[in-house]
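#help-structures
NK: newbie question, is this the right format to request a structure? protein is Periplasmic chaperone PpiD
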Amino acid sequence: MSVIQKIRDKYAITIVVVICLAIVSFLLQDAFFGRGSLSQGSNTVGKVNGQELDRSEYDQRIKNEEENLRQQSPGGLNDQTRQYAQELAWNRFLNEQIMTAQFEKLGVEVTEAEKVDQFFGKHPNPIVVQYFTNPQTGQFDPALVKQAYSNVSQDKTGRMREMVRQLEDAVAKTQQQQKYQNLIKQGVYYPKWLADQQQKDNAQTATVSYVNVPYASIADSTIQVTDAELNKFIQDHKELFKVEESRKVEYLSFDALPSAADTAAAMKLMVELKAEMDTTKDIAGFINRNSEMKFFDGYVPKSSSMVPHKDSVVDLPIGAIFGPYYDGNTVAFAKMLDRKTMPDTAKIRFVLVSTQQGLADSIAKRRIDSVETAVKGGADFATMVAMYSDDESSKANGGEYELTPTTNFPVKEVKDFAFDGSKGQSKVMKTPYGYFLVQVMEQKNFGPAVKVAYLAKTVDASKETDGKAYAEANEFAGKNNSQVAFDKTIQKDGLNKRIADNIRPMDFVIPGIGQARELVRWAYEAKKGDVSTVFSFENKYVVAVLTSIRKEGLAPLEDVKPQVTAEVKKNKKAAQIIAKLQTPASLDAAAKTTSQPVLHAEGVTFATPFIASMGFEPRVAGAAFNKAWGTAKVSAPIEGNGGVFVIKVDAYQPAAQPAQDLATMQAAYEQGIKSMLDNQLFEVLKKKSKVEDNRFKFF
């Protein structure tokens, strides 16, 4: 105890200081390197002109886009669709920030009077026309607009008011955008003097004699270039070498493909299941329990069947089984269950009163019955949809859907009625979603259809086969942890190295691999020359090396060296040829100096840079109409695309086509530029904006 007391007396202050330093060190370490670090704590996924997009807001935007896409694709979302939703959300944010700034800068507004005119004026907005087109006539019906507004005050649920508000906002935004585009388009002008000059330039053609000294006449091996010359060429032609940020990786893929033993095991299992398939009474349950292709309780028109061995399958007798057959890496049996005659397309419309949001069943039933009574009494179906239907995705088109037997429509009862009912028939039906009033509008192309059950299994690699592929990949990654070792082993063992170039920060798919977001993220976190650990993707394991990091701006020389070298060598060859030619007194002198023949070209025009006997040579086409030379003089040497040319115009002839009216030329040019603006204006504004995309750090 005395020893402990001495320590307390002598070192108490020192111990307190050490403890405090340790606590501070721990806190600083957490702040700068931990998950909640100050340096990594930013939740900003991007900025546009200083306006930040927070992660939570971006996530909500993505959810909204996914919900819109889900309504358009009842079958659900896949990885590609989710990626598309992310891009939609990001691009809408860009559009909002960039265009709002433009509108405010120029004072572009939409007044209340303009909004009213967009709905009730002589030229209603296209969105209004789309929403209020009479399904019976296919024409815009102003009476439906008035009826919708008059019903707002009577709608106690508030749904109609909210729908009208959203519609007004959408119309106002499109009108604001249109105003802005019109302002820009008013600045497009093609001067009369320029049209007159163009008309004169196109008024004649030239017949030309020439000497061409091809660049290929000088061997590449005789031309030496330095990196300094190549870099100077890039700097002098910056527009040709602008690149966006990207990465380049080289990789090896160790495929875990099924072995012969794996295939034999899968086939044995399928033969056993086929025996049960042949005798079972519950075919739907059997298929859903045992098959990777779930049971489709419906009919497929014979004409639209897309299965392998189609003729053998669709012509089976009822109860017969065809197979086994292969469909890619899947083995399958097909059993014919039934056949009948039915349409291949049906068009319906419906009103849905949903019970999924807590509405009592009895109230929902009374509401749908009231809607049915109103429709039978002559009420407009589209108006009933707008006022009472809970299916938001179909309100814009009067509740209409066009279905095929294979459409993945979520309500089986409605889909069955679309094909089993008759044209013009209406029916109220109860479903798990609520009550529907469905009307069959049209049925087309009646023909034979079949109901088939498919027992299908993918032939997968066994654990042993998969483990072997992983072991090979892991061994390679462990022994080759540098780019030098990576390349050396590949060359020594004759392995099949693959290349993935121009990988962008938000790419999800890499050609040859498929969904590979993990690899993309690694490429943006790694250093050049780093070798990855083993990535696991579908049916394969991948080991990659990062071979190039491209920043936004000019392409590095190593990425474009072959292209730049060819251009610089071409320029040096041109200089040699021009120095040899000097200023030739005649074509014969040029031909003698270069040992090249005198050739001829007809129909050369100023407006067309392609010359039949030369190829794409715009400088030659322009030189043919140089007034300083005319028909009296031989041109100076012209540095062309394929060689150096010396030309002499033999004669000018009037153009075969008559001169175009100046006003027509002006109008055509201006219209062409205005049409381009519709597609390119926003891209130009985006390039001129300061956009910072950090999404790759989060996704």
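mod (FA): yep, format's fine, and the tokens are attached above. Residues 1-40 have pLDDT under 50 and may be disordered.
NK: thank you!
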